[in-house]
């Protein structure tokens, strides 16, 4: 585990920029859509089918980009408002990336603190680097209440009961094996104090598995603003409270 300090050189960021989730996916989706449309203009056989497929793929790309650039931010603002934080909590964000949830939470913690952990994979989020997250926090005016660490979600470098809230936005599913995904959820519960809250957004099958694994929690779909191309890649919120 390493901590990325705020006194290291930071990029010049005038306002927070959170990048694109899994950037290769919309790039391929859009390219496939464009290829279908071009092919439809050249080949008479199957023209209608190609044009329909191309239009659908381009529409899915647009929905995906809306979600990753705007929709998910609006959803998390609403969910953090719904959480009714008191303002003095210690909050941990798993797979914080460039800080979309971390920073939005920190805005609500004037006397609290928000900590993010990540392994900083550019495959999972474009431009995913700790210095970018810290620069985003500075641009949002919350750098005094944000820290980030390079750490694995399956082996968190924090003591039991260190946090009042643990959040995670579409990060745990990136862990390859089911066993390690469950270990990450167990780690999240371990570092929560009794009565603390776990708030995890992930694709529906994963969120349901996490709830089944811990044997509790409520599940709620987050709607079209959190569709990665369509309802088949919609996101569900798991909310659970650690037993006292």
TrEMBL record:
Pfam families assigned = Methyltransf_11
Task: List the InterPro entries.
Answer: Methyltransf_11, SAM-dependent_MTases_sf
GO BP terms, alphabetized: methylation
GO terms of molecular function: methyltransferase activity
> What sequence ranges are listed for the domain Methyltransferase type?
92-200
| Enzyme Commission number | 2.1.1.-
Which EC main class describes this enzyme?
transferase
Q: Out of the domains of life, which is the source? A: Bacteria
Q: Which keywords does the record carry?
A: Methyltransferase, Transferase
Q: What is this protein called?
A: Class I SAM-dependent methyltransferase
Q: Which organism is it from?
A: Streptomyces aureus
């Amino acid at each position: 585990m390493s901590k990325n300090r705020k006194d290291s050189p930071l990029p010049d960021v005038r306002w927070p920029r959170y990048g694109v989730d899994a950037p290769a996916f919309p790039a391929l989706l859009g390219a496939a859509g464009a290829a279908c449309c071009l092919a439809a203009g050249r080949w008479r056989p199957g023209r209608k089918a190609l044009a329909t497929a191309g239009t659908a793929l381009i529409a899915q790309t647009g929905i995906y980009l809306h979600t990753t650039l705007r929709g998910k931010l609006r959803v998390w603002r609403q969910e953090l408002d719904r959480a009714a934080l008191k303002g003095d909590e210690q909050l941990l964000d798993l797979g914080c990336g460039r800080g979309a949830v971390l920073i939005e939470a920190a805005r609500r913690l004037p006397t609290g603190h928000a900590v993010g952990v990540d392994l900083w994979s550019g495959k999972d989020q474009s431009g995913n680097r700790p210095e970018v997250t810290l620069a985003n926090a500075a641009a949002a005016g919350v750098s005094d209440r944000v820290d980030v660490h390079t750490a694995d979600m399956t082996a968190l470098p924090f003591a039991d009961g260190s946090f009042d809230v643990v959040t995670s936005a579409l990060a745990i599913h990136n862990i390859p094996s089911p066993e390690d995904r469950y270990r990450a959820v167990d780690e999240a519960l371990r570092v929560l104090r009794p009565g603390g809250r776990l708030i995890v957004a992930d694709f529906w099958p994963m969120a349901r598995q996490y709830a089944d694994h811990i044997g509790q929690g409520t599940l709620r779909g987050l709607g079209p603003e959190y569709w990665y191309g369509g309802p088949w890649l919609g996101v569900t919120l798991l909310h659970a409270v650690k037993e006292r």
